[in-house]
């Protein structure tokens, strides 16, 4: 691992939940923002971190331009979605997301993401917003990390203390092995199957009356442990691929805490998957 990549790890472990704004991850005076972003993207490609992006500029596609030729009463978009499309009416192919006059910003971003999903517009410029360690990154830092390449890494007392705290936390939170006493196991490591996870989603939706829009944090509270976050995410993607569930993003963030929002599944562009919907 390159020294500057390791610095990203060491900066992240000082942040709450090992997550922070990329603008707050300072790698040294000689490291420019573009290089820092490239390093974080490389770590994302390696499967060690996850990240979110802000869509700075959007571009209308050929499919989106066709909407200008359709009568307003026949448009296949909502009035608010049409506001985004009409922002390109001055023969501009690319505009800033901030030029769209829809409030709050979270609602505007949700509408933009829906139009991107439908192919009417596309992201023309994105900027990294947040980056955080995922389980694979924690495992790598705690058990496999080694150094390569040039550069000098100086440890302050606080940096060393933060690293020791990370190591202690990592190993104390690992699943404990089964201990057999008098023919019985005192700790179980049995993990639910995909079908059992699906049934848990259905049961929680009924119990919490979430009307088939179960917030992900409810499921995490129920299944982590025995599952890790990565294992649960992978199981949910399998259920999605089997067309048993689908996801929806959160439009109004004020109704939930930051911890609850962070329980969503981040996407490379736009917000996180927040709700689980069971397909009937």
Structure, explained:
It contains 11 helices and 9 strands. The chain is of the alpha+beta class. The longest helix is centred in the middle third of the chain and has 16 residues. The strands form 3 sheets. The chain has a 4-stranded antiparallel β-sheet with strand order 1-4-2-3. Strands 7-9-8 form a 3-stranded antiparallel β-sheet. About 4% of the residues have low confidence. Helix 8 crosses helix 9. Strand 5 and strand 6 form a beta hairpin.
Topology:
Blueprint: H1 3-12, E1 19-21, H2 33-45, E2 49-60, H3 62-66, H4 79-86, E3 94-96, H5 105-117, E4 121-133, H6 135-143, H7 157-172, E5 180-181, E6 184-185, H8 194-208, E7 214-215, H9 216-223, H10 229-241, E8 245-249, H11 258-262, E9 273-278
Antiparallel strand pairs: 1-4, 2-3, 2-4, 5-6, 7-9, 8-9
């Amino acid at each position: 691992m390159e020294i500057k990549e390791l610095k990203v790890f060491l900066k992240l472990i000082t942040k709450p939940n090992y997550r922070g704004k990329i603008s707050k991850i300072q790698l040294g005076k000689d490291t420019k923002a573009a290089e820092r972003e490239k390093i974080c993207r490389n770590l994302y490609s390696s499967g060690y971190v996850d990240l979110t992006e802000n869509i700075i500029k959007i571009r209308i596609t050929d499919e989106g331009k066709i909407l200008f030729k359709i009568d307003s009463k026949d448009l296949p978009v909502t009035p608010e979605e049409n506001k985004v499309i009409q922002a390109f009416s001055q023969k501009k192919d690319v505009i800033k997301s901030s030029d769209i006059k829809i409030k709050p910003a979270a609602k505007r971003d949700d509408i933009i993401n829906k139009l991107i999903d439908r192919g009417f517009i596309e992201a023309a410029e994105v900027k990294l917003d947040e980056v955080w360690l995922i389980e694979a990154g924690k495992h790598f830092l705690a058990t496999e990390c080694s150094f390569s390449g040039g550069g000098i890494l100086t440890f302050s007392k606080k940096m060393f203390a933060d690293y020791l705290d990370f190591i202690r936390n990592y190993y104390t939170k690992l699943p404990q092995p089964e201990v057999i006493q008098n023919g019985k196991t005192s700790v179980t490591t049995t993990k639910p199957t995909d079908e059992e996870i699906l049934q848990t989603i259905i049961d929680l939706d009924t119990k919490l009356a979430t009307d088939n829009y179960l917030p992900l944090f409810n499921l995490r509270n129920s299944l982590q442990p025995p599952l890790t976050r990565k294992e649960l995410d992978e199981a949910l993607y399998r259920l999605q691929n089997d067309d048993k569930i689908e996801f929806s993003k959160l439009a109004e963030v004020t109704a939930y805490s930051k911890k609850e929002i962070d329980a969503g599944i981040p996407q490379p562009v736009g917000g996180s998957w927040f709700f689980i919907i069971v397909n009937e």
